[in-house]
Amino acid sequence: MIGGGDSTVLGFFGSRLSEHLGMEADLLLETRRHGKLALAATRLTCSRFVFARTPPMPSEPAFSIFHQLGELERHSCWLAGRPKFSGSFSAGTVSVTDLLDSPQWEYRGPVEALQYYVPRRALDDFAREHDAKPVETLRWSRDRRDPCLSTISSLLLSAIEEDRTTNQLFVDQIGLSLLAHFAQTYGGLRTYDGALEGGLAPWQERRAKEIMRARLASRLTIADVAAECRLTPSHFARSFRRSAGIAPHEYLSRLRMDEAKRLLTTTKLPLADIALICGFGDQSYFTRVFSR
């Protein structure tokens, strides 16, 4: 799910993050699993050079992960009133904060960053679904770059910039990939091999393809298709790739392109109508995709 949530109620991201830090914020992504928030992504920007130390953040069971998109001269953090770290941050580096510790922050220099908000409950649910031990905490050395996170962040920004609605399925997969990355790489989660084996049952693959064909024009999500197959979104996405050889969002894109080609050659419908029928959102986006 992209955007559309009440971040003041749900947690420290989006508008609540913006108000607390005094920065401009764009809520890019809210990933939900079983109807509950699993991860949120907020882009933060501010051209001010010096920021006052923030008041203590009310404690909540979640983690805040800052991924620096640009150079930051100084970033200081206090946990429960005690200094945690202070120093410069290079582009691509990451800092992880446990929000249970009532953190405070202070910044020096223009800010350009992505904040990922991960509730502890989402990590517990993810571990339980994969028959793994619970994730106790998330850790990352603040002076280290995370090439994997940089790649996923770049994909997210590109998908959001191109078209928020048409790329819904793809953005859902990005959210699930981020949750898995944080659980495994930052939280040390290890799954049993058996949890990662196998594809979809024949009836599940048929049903997944049927619903994607039937709902080309709708904002179809990974969770929608997974529910039809009686699987969790992450399990479905992994199993679909093993069975079909491509990711669900790629399969849906191919279906949309094939249907668009058919309508272009067999009907006299305007391009704008074909774009809507095939789920491309608008004619300009359809034209860009079709010309590739």
From TrEMBL:
Domain called HTH araC/xylS-type: residue spans: 206-292
Sorted UniProt keywords: DNA-binding, Transcription, Transcription regulation
Any single Pfam family the record assigns to this protein: HTH_18
InterPro entries (alphabetical): AraC_XylS_family_regulators (IPR050204), Homeodomain-like_sf (IPR009057), HTH_AraC (IPR018060)
Superkingdom: Bacteria
GO molecular function: DNA-binding transcription factor activity; sequence-specific DNA binding
Protein name: Transcriptional regulator
Source organism (scientific name): Bradyrhizobium neotropicale
